[in-house]
Amino acid sequence: xxxxxxxxxxxITIGIILVAVAVEYFFAPNNIAAGGxxxxxxxxxxxxxxxxxxxxxxxxxxxxxxxxxxxxxxNFGGKTxxxxxxxxxIMAFMEKFMHPVAITNDLIIATLFGTITSAIxxxxxxxxxxxxxxxxxxxxxxNKFIHTDIGKSLLVVDFLVTLAxxxxxxxxxxxxxxxxxxxxxLAIDEFIEGFRTCKAITIxxxxxxxxxxxxxxxxxxxxxxxxxxxxxxxxxxxIIYTVLGRTEFIKLKNYMKQLDPKAFITxxxxxxxxxxxxxxxxxx
Length: 284
Fold this sequence. Notes:
Layout (H helix, E strand, L loop, with lengths): L2 H25 L8 H12 L5 H20 L5 H21 L8 H21 L7 H11 L4 H20 L1 H26 L1 E7 L3 H11 L5 E6 L6 E9 L1 H14 L4 E7 L14
Antiparallel strand pairs: 1-3, 1-4, 2-3
Helix pairs in contact: 1-4, 1-5, 2-3, 2-7, 3-4, 3-6, 5-8, 6-7, 7-8, 9-10
């Protein structure tokens, strides 16, 4: 197993632990069925209390993977299987040995903090090219046979889960579950963008060779020279273009203060970078 794959599985593990914490300490004790398989499990647990939410998630994932194999083929990877069953195992472990109780009984606080915790966990899983399976599988089946967008299919499935929560636990709790679904979808995108954000940098400096060498040798990143002409000076100039992580940019900025404090630098955020040194296109 390569170091990158090992790192991905470590990240996925941290992600599903956060999702499990959100479910066991915020959602389940307050009957907030915030969509997905875990939301379905919370509703079913109300009627079949002798089966814990962790066990119910495990059972439903097995059923969904069988259905996926029949209707979709084996197009779900090892990371998705690991995340799906890992989540249910961690939840079952918490329920048996840690006996989780609600951190707060305030539904607003439970909804907000549970959703944020879950969204961070899900973003970590997605960022490692994984998925927790579950209702994603239902959405893919609807996409295949009804030709609806996967995003819309997920929204429909989650809406039905929150509808069931409202019917089971009351309208107020149902609305909190729906609010969690909406916030969760927005928050996951924001967190993923935050993980992938880099800095696109252009530099105009007479000491361009020293800067380029620092970027390549000290930071281990590539850079490109773009030939230009100064409008005022009419002189040929070299413009350096590079993309760096945030910590790498701080190192470059500190270096520039010493080498050429008069350099002209522009910086902009880029939300996804594909290619050598970053996420490979083949991995997406």
